[in-house]
Amino acid sequence: MVLPNFNGRDLLKSYLPFTFEALENSGCTYEFLLVDDCSQDDSVEFVSQNYPQIRILKNEENRGFSFSCNRGIKESVNELVFLLNSDIKLSPEYFRGLFPYFSNPETFGVMGKILNRDGSKVEIGAKIPRRIGKYLKTDFQYLPFAESSTAPTLFLSGANALIDRKKLIELGGFDELFSPFYSEDLDLGIRAWRMGWKCYFHDQSHCYHLGSATMKTQIQKDWVKTVYFRNRMLFHAIHLETEDLRWWKAQTLLLDVLPKLLIGKTWIWKSFKALNALESGISQSRNKLRHQLQKKPGSRSLRQVLTEFDRLMVSQQIIWKS
After folding, report:
1. Which one of 19, 27, 41, 188 has the largest count of C-beta atoms within 10 Å of its C-beta?
2. Is the pLDDT of residue 214 over 70?
């Protein structure tokens, strides 16, 4: 278990009891690592006093979600790593049905269904890719009609993902270029699919999402939007085939950046500029991934992943969710 934390004292107090209940009910041997990202509240003191069985790792400076998760992954010792956000409440039997997925050597990881706070709405189900020109949309999701142990998902939410640690280490964990947050789990899932592995969704496991704290100022809201759209563009810059990059950038400027600028959403230009500032890091991420794929039999391009995913979906009975 790896749980990144930043000023999450109240969340930890509310939800850690449910986490431990689910872990105990799983019947497995586990370790619990909490990676604190320079919290300014008394998170560390609270956990130390009330949960001495949790091993606490303290970052020397605030580094964001990807760095914190990667640190926990490297420090972990068990065959599987469960990544959990502090605002997630696990159901008592959350892990029931998840472990058998890993009898398949192609399994990268599996996640359960994420419901809203009162369980009245599905927030995150299995993800389906859809392409609009050169742009990959990932906000489509579905739920299986019937119980299924093989429902594929494009990626695993970093909020509640059970993952093969050996494969995580082979990939190098999350790409920290996506720091401080957003789209790092999409990037990780796509890299796993490109390596020939599979990500699954288990409909019978569920948890509850408290929801992000409301931003207090418009400046904060615009900053979050800037990071979000920068990282959506960053994902494409890393994974698109070389011959598609020029057309994707033109499409992004004409159909996304300029229309938003015309209606006063100036933060989108900041996203685009921030993407260009990461040119060196993007090149490093592309080269690293290329070298990993070259050494892996059965690796594939993004196009091949999307084709394979469509083929897998043919055999799935689905309920579409917007």
Report:
1. 188
2. no
